[in-house]
Amino acid sequence: MTDRFDPWRSTRILRGPLVGAGAVAAASLLLLSILLALGGYDVAAALGALWRGSFGSSYALFSATLVRATPLLLAGLAVALAFRAGVWNIGAEGQLLAGATGAIAAAALPLPGAVRLALALLFALAAGAIWALPAALLRRRGVLEVISTIMLNFIALNLVGYLVRGPLQEPTHAYPQSPTIDAAARLPRVAGTRLHLGVGIALAAAIALGIAVRRSAWGFRVRAVGANARAAASAGLIDVSRVALQVFLVSGALAGLAGGIEVTGVTFALYEGLSPGYGYTAIAVALLARLDPLLVAPSALLFGALEAGATAMQRDAGVPAAFVTVVEGSLVLLVLLLPVLTRRYEMRAARSRDVAA
Amino acid sequence: MSVNSEFLSAAVRTATPLLLAATGELVIERAGIIYVGIEGSILAGALAAAAGGMFSGTAAAVLLAIGAGALTAALFALFVVRWRTEQIVTGTAITLVATGATAALYHVLFGAEGAGLRVPVIHSIAVPVLSKLPLIGEVLFDQSLFTYAAVAALVVVWWGLARTQLGLAIRACGERPSAARSAGIATSRLRAGAALFAGALGGTAGAALVLVQSGTFAEGMSAGRGFIAIAIVALGRWRAGGVLVAALAFGAASALQYLFQARGWTLPYQTFLALPYVATLVALATTRARGAAPAALGQADVD
């Protein structure tokens, strides 16, 4: 069965995932170097800072790169699953904010710390799914989910803005943010680092989802709907709109969990700038992983490293972090181009074979 | 000016870049393409307008902005129309690239602090006689050139889509491209043209942000207006008249914060900022709006 959207499908050279990942990392570094040189920056100094900020020390790896990669991994899984089924959920950002809000609400309940933490993550899952629900239901009625999820992203952002100035504002009413979660209800950290248990939860989710998509009957239905919805429906055994609804809800829950883990593991409070666009970067993360949940992990690691490194690059070498954003977007365009390029290459090869024969 | 007419005037002013971008988005969506990257066109236009205004004058600023917006859309069209890549994914990537590229270019061109960059803000032009009308006079007829241009563009688009051969061909591309091609319409060329038009108007919207409102460029200053334009087109049911009303509604919602400050009301204005998005969702849930969407919206033009 061919998948509806798999840009890497026909690429012979990059078939091995490891080779692919290496090629992508090399391509992004090359592109970044060219852009930096064009901008008149000291390329070596900038790349050195990028390295020191991402993988160069155990602090950079554990307290910056992995912490940054965690929400990208979960939101990337949300996008990968949805796109795999042909559900164009670009609402991961809003679902992430909804999840963060749900987690903050649960963490404030008068209960023991561990219970509150567990409830916070459950609330995050539920809130993310609930935030995806309107778009999922409207989709059944023929409304493009691209438009509805964009609306829901903005509603979530404004809702958080209202909540942190209203019902959920911290007690002194001085700052637009929620009260801070106390230590008892936070995700445990690896001693001496900022690395929290969330990275383990995210990895477990990636493995579970990867197995579910590849091996389970449900995963087969998801792939069938994504590959060709009409064929899946006429085969008679698959309720296409039901599968799409399920996928939408699971996708929302995963993005919501990303938000829940971010507030219980990193920020400890809810505020408007909680996510620097994780939900949008997640689209790039998922595409680079060819929508395969297992490959979302290395892809999220690469993006986490790029973003952590970008912060260091800006601080130590005076290079705007925006250069890395250009690289991220270009990577997606490159991934989109690969099948086009290989199609051409194969056609030319076939033509020259015909001529030789 | 009274507080109320100040508010209405601000609503029209805030609606202007939204209306420009939404008019462009309307044309490309009627041709069957959803252009999420219009956010990128707005940003490109804003930076070009700031640079143009700095090094030359207002006219150069506007022309550069139109060019930069169209150039961004040309890149999008190259991918989507020529190489038939997925529209939503491509549009998101274009936005990402444009967000990074404009911020990086701004640093390269104007230095790290960039605080020194000021572009002269253009003033409103009062239409003789009409601007003296009570209440609506100063609200509608004492605005910048961009507001008048936005309304003119919308009228041209309305007339062009509804009453001309070209408009019929564009709409055919959006409803059923394969049938349109059978009828001898060059669908790829039309879709690419619609993209360039959308990008040009998106760039103009960016110029309006710089030359009317802020007088400078800031990273990510489009602040989601491209996405709002997509909402406006949906709320306006893919029609020119509806787009005008929807753009004013979104403009009024954002202008409410000025009204709240002026009146000293303490209610969080975020509630009202969210209203137009909720309204769009509700409107989409009704049957009439759904039927209004171009049938082939979002689909690649393949046999």
Helix-strand layout with pairing:
The complex is a heterodimer of chains A (357) and B (303).
Chain A: H1 17-38, H2 43-54, H3 58-84, H4 92-107, H5 113-140, H6 145-163, H7 198-215, H8 217-227, H9 229-234, H10 240-267, H11 278-288, H12 293-317, H13 322-356
Helix pairs in contact in A: 1-13, 2-12, 3-7, 3-10, 3-11, 3-12, 4-5, 4-6, 4-10, 4-11, 5-6, 5-10, 7-8, 7-12, 8-10, 11-12, 11-13, 12-13
Chain B: H1 3-30, H2 38-55, H3 58-82, H4 87-110, E1 125-126, H5 136-141, E2 142-143, H6 145-163, H7 165-175, H8 177-182, H9 187-214, H10 225-235, H11 240-263, H12 270-285, H13 287-292
Antiparallel strand pairs in B: 1-2
Helix pairs in contact in B: 1-6, 1-9, 1-10, 1-11, 2-3, 2-4, 2-9, 2-10, 3-4, 3-9, 6-7, 10-11, 10-12, 11-12
Give the mean pLDDT of chain B. 87
**Name of the CATH architecture of chain B:** Orthogonal Bundle
CATH topology title of chain B: ABC transporter involved in vitamin B12 uptake, BtuC
Alpha-carbon distance between the two ends of chain A: 32 Å
| CATH-defined topology of chain A | ABC transporter involved in vitamin B12 uptake, BtuC
Task: Give an account of the 3D structure.
The complex is a heterodimer of chains A (357) and B (303). Chain A has 357 residues and is an all-alpha fold. Chain A is built from 13 helices and no strands. The model of chain A has no long low-confidence stretch (mean pLDDT 89). With 303 residues, chain B is mainly alpha-helical. Chain B has a single domain (3-115, 127-292), classed as ABC transporter involved in vitamin B12 uptake, BtuC. A two-stranded antiparallel sheet of chain B has the order 1-2. In chain B, helix 3 (58-82) runs antiparallel to helix 9 and helix 11 (240-263) runs antiparallel to helix 12 (270-285). Chain B is globular and about 60 Å long. The model of chain B has no long low-confidence stretch (mean pLDDT 87). Chains A and B meet through helix 6, helix 11 and helix 13 of A and helix 4, helix 10 and helix 12 of B.
